[in-house]
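FW: tagging you since you asked about this chain on Friday. Here's the raw sequence from the shared folder, copied in full. Didn't touch anything.
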Amino acid sequence: QVQLVESGGGLVRAGGSLRLSCAASGISASIDTMRWYRQAPGKQRDLVATITGGGSTNYVDSVKGRFTISRDNAKNTVYLQMNSLKPEDTAVYYCNGATNYWGQGTQVTVSS
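HL: got it, structure written out here
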C-alpha cells in the first residue's frame, strides 16, 4: 500500500521560510519521480516542483530561485524548502509520487 504523508505547513509572514516534508512508503522516493503541487482556493491544482529518479529538478517559473526540491534516500522522504514566501504562495501543498499517488495535503498560509 502506497502512502505519502506531508508535513511542515503552517502560517508564516511574507519573506519567511517553511520546509515541507513528504514521507513515502510503498514507493521509492529515490527511484520514482516525485512532485509537489499546490492548490489555492477556487483554483486548479498546479505543479510546483519535480525531482526525477536521476536527481533532475524542475520548477514553475513563479518559484524559481525561492523553492528547492530535494530528497533523503535513506528516509524515503522528499522535501520542499520554500524561502522568500509571498502571499500568493498560499495554498494547500500536495506531494505526488510516481504520477498516481497523492498525499493528503498540507496548508501553507503566507500573511502580508
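FW: The mean pLDDT is 95.
HL: agreed, and The CA atoms of residues 52 and 111 lie 32 Å apart.
FW: great, closing this out.
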